[in-house]
Structures are given as C-alpha cells and as structure tokens.
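Bumping with the actual sequence this time:
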Amino acid sequence: MEHITLLLAIVVVTALVFDFTNGFHDTANAMATTISTGALKPKTAVAMSAVLNLVGAFLSVEVAKTISGGIINEEGIRTEVIFAALVGAILWNLLTWLLGLPSSSSHALFGGLIGAAVMSAGWSAVNGSTIVTKVLIPAVAAPLVAGIAAMVATKLTYRIKAAPEAKATAKGFRAGQIASAGLVSLAHGTNDAQKTMGIITLALVANGVVSPGSNPPVWVIASAGLAIALGTYLGGWRIIRTMGKGLTDLQPQQGFAAQTSSATVILASSHLGFSLSTTQSVSGAVMGAGLGRKGGVVRWSTATRMFVAWGLTLPAAGLVGAGAEFLTKQGTWGVVLVAALLVAGSAVIWSLSRRKPVDRHNVTADDLDAPAPAGAADAEPAGVVTTAIAVVSPPPPAGSVAAVADEALKTTIPSPGPADPAAPPAAPAAAV
C-alpha cells in the first residue's frame, strides 16, 4: 500500500460515491414493478434488493476486467483521468435522477471515461473494437431482446390458468414476481457493482499498486458491493415512479414476465463479460410486458424521453469528463476546482429535488400533490404500436385470467352516457 497517494485515495472515494449513485439510480430496475403491483412494500423491496446486490458483487469479476483493461488502454493513463471520468458520470447520474429518467449509469461511466481519456491522450487511448462489441451492440440488442421476451412471456402467462383460479393465480404471480425481482437484484450486483471495481482497479494499475490485467483485490470487491447496496437501500424513488407508473400500468403477471426476462438477459451478459446497461434491459422488458397484455398501454411520451436520455448519456457524460480532464491537466488547482464543481453541482441538484420530493410514501401515487381522479392513470390514449398490436392479437380464451379481467373492467367502469353540457370537463392524466 506504499503507492497509495492522496489523489488515488480521492479517486477511490469518488468511485465509491459513483457506485452509491448507481445503486439508488438503478433500484428501479429490480423493484419498480414489484412495488407498483403491490407485491412488496416499498421499504421491504429496497432492503431485499440491497442485500442481493451485495451478494451479487462477489459472484463474478468478468465485467470488472472489461472495464479495467478493455475500454481504454491502461498504459499511460493518469489518475486524474479516472477522477475526471467519475465526475462526468456522477453529475449525469444525478441530473437524470432529478428528472426521473432511467438512463444508464453504465453508459454514463463509459462516456466519462472515454471523454477524459481522449482529452488526456487522444483517440489512441480508446479501444474502439471493445466499445463496439461489448458496449454499443449490447446497448441496442439488450432492450430489444428483453422486450420481445417479456411480451411473449406476458401473452403466455395470461393463458395458463382458468377463470375460477384467477385470484389464486394473481397471488402466485406476486410470489413469482418477488423471486424474479430478487434475481434482477442479484444480476445487477454481478454487473453494475463490477463497473466500480473495474474503475478502482484501473486507478490502482495507473499508480502501480497492482499489475495490469489483475483481478480486483478483495477489499475493492467488498467496498464496491457495500456502496451499491447502501445506495440501493436508500431507494431512487423518482426513477422507481417512472418505471412503475410512468411507462405502463402493470399487473402481477406482467411484472413477473418483465423481471424474469430482464434478469435472464443481465445474467447472460455478465457471464460473457458484456458491460450491459441493466436500466435499458429492464426498461425494454417493462415496455414489452405492457404490449403483451391485451388492452395494455405503453406511454410513448415517457418512453420517448427515456430514449432521448439513452442517446445523450454517452456524449453528455463524455463532454463533462473531457472538460473535467482539461481542468485537471492544469495542475493541483485544476483538480481542486473540479472537486469543488462536483460538490456544488451535486448540492444544487439535491436542493432542486426537495421542491417536489418523491419517497416511499408517494412513489405509487397517481399525483404527487393530490389524489388523481378515478381512471386518470389510464387517460392517456394508446399509442400507434399499442393499437396495432391490439388489433392483430387474438382475443383471450373464454375463462382465462385476461378474459375475467376484461369482463371485470367492463362491469366496474360504466359506459359513458349522453354528454351533459353542465358537467365539468374530465381532468387530464397526471404527467410523469
């Protein structure tokens, strides 16, 4: 440990802060659908997710090795470069959390790392082939694969039980949803916690503490696992709200299908060393589950905001990382200035979030300020894709859970009668 310097210690602490933000930013990946369907209480859900994230951190180091020795060339990388990369990733994570957008913490980290490395040593510092094969291709494929799998699984789940057993079936799917949510949390620990392990290992390599190509030391694995578990326990309630309420209205069958599909994709990618975005995988699965239920609605306005955030994450974090690296190259005063800007930016974002807080008490509410009118959650009309799939989908068989649900909906929601000119106009759905 004689090679540990003050700057290296600052980088390790900053990396663990990023890991913490990754935890509360991505809690929604595992628990949003479980909370929105009522399968688990919010605080119970995040506690369970935190424990399993910690366990998952110890199961594999393949993704960590991709980060520490694959994205950028280790030789000649200064510690300041890693610090600048983390600043870009943390600020983007906090900004998207404030907006309630489930963007990719992984891509924020990659963007910051690429931007800082290019500013420091030029494009030759970046391994383009690794970025394409292990970052960009999985980024496109993962949400599509998870979405298609979840849509097919949702259609199948609505056909496995007969009408008399509909209530028991819903309870069974809630139990299955809890199990699948635990699997997603475990998968998240095996993938996302390793990214911080890889960054810390890269910093240790740059300072000569460990040799290039080494696995993360045990203390790195343990500290990264604890940091992401603590962040997960605190709960990223804003993003949980978007994932659980903003994209679509989920029933237990859909939640089970979405979580099982996304967990399978994430675990497979961790085994192959792909540094996958768990956020994109789960978001794709949730949308697929929404399309898989007859009459289900995907709110494409919210989905479009997510897609824009996904596309901006790499370049935006990269620009911030490059700017931070430009300052750190100026010397000690530049490093101090970057640290001060990070603290100030984080404080501003936190203060803005307090204007309309989201926590475990109102995370599933239809409106953050007041109860929404009956049916407001479904007021948004079906989009083009949803309508097209509904048209070509065959009706559910008589006596199935889907048929029972449709019939119950018809009997509990009265058909609109003649227009009453004296009646006030209907309230619009609450925007998420």
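The tokens above came from a reply further down the thread. Residues 370-394, 396-432 have pLDDT under 50 and may be disordered.
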